[in-house]
Amino acid sequence: MLDYAGARAVAIIVQTGSFEGAAHVLNVTQSAISQRVRNLEERLGTVLIQRGQPCTATEAGAWLCRHMEHVGILEESLLEHLPGLAAPSGGQRVTLEVATNADSLGTWFLPAVASFAQQSGYLFNIAIDDEQHTPDWLRQGRVLAAVTSLDRPVQGCMVKPLGRLRYHAAATPDFMQRHFPDGVTLQALAEAPALRFNPKDNLQQAWVRQVFGQSSALPSHSLPSTQGFVDACRAGLGWGLNPACLICDHLATGALVELVPGTGFDVPLFWQISRLVAGRLQGLTQAVLAAAEGELVHP
Question: Which has the least CB within 10 A, 112, 226, 236, 248?
């Protein structure tokens, strides 16, 4: 039988980032929290918490935290039918681990999370990764649900199409004059600085292949911020693919222009959620689908 007192202590330490914070949440002494964690680590024969500022979970600790997340969801479901089981203090609120790409977070995803959180009382820990890599978070059990570009369900998950996030390759008129005086060509692109979110970001290369039929070397600035991309484009730092909804006003005023007019680039997105919690979190899925319906491009 799992030591749930110890497991809950581990989960709360990870949520709060410290043993002191967990002690405050669980209303026990810090030494009691340390003892619970130490006993559980000795029993399991592995370290669960990486001590530091903040404290973080080891790989084994992360699996334990995900298990406690499932337990919390199940307990809430049980309390709806047996409210007499609730602790006098009302128990601990459940934190849901989800993952999404930065551009979805910066455009349409947060309203969905906010709507569901207000109705349900759940807390959220939102991880950010490239939409091509968020399925790995599901496979590793690090999150319960994710926005991905993968249309096939990850094992143990159900998948629903969300729509397409449209991008435009844009830069300032001055940047265009300096770097593309004779038009946008593969040779010119090999010299003009582009913007990329991080080393995983291949969106600019994908646009080049779509427009020109082949890739090109792209000297790039790295800038891991959705709004920062827009600001960097407006500042003339480089050209980049920006979500259409974030730069439509700048395109309308001429502050930014498309590198090649009429060459929008669409990224299909999908919602994947663990089947173990899909029923209980149906409201979250409905909120995500509703937000995507209003903001993403659909056939």
Answer: 248
DSSP string, 57-103: E-HHHHHHHHHHHHHHHHHHHHHHH-GGGS-TT--PPPEEEEEE-HH
Tokens standing for residue 231: 């600001």
> Could you say which residues of the chain have pLDDT below 50?
85, 88-90
How many angstroms separate the Cα of 177 from the Cα of each of 23, 96, 216? Answer: 60, 48, 20
Query: Whats the size of the chain, residue-wise?
Result: 299
Are 92 and 8 in contact by the 8 Å Cβ rule? The answer is yes
Superfamily grouping for domain 165-267: Periplasmic binding protein-like II (3.40.190.10)
How many Å apart are CA 62 and CA 38, to the nearest integer?
Answer: 16
Domain boundaries, the chain: 1-92, 165-267
Q: What is the pLDDT of residues 60-83, one digit of tens each?
A: 888 888 788 777 777 666 655 556
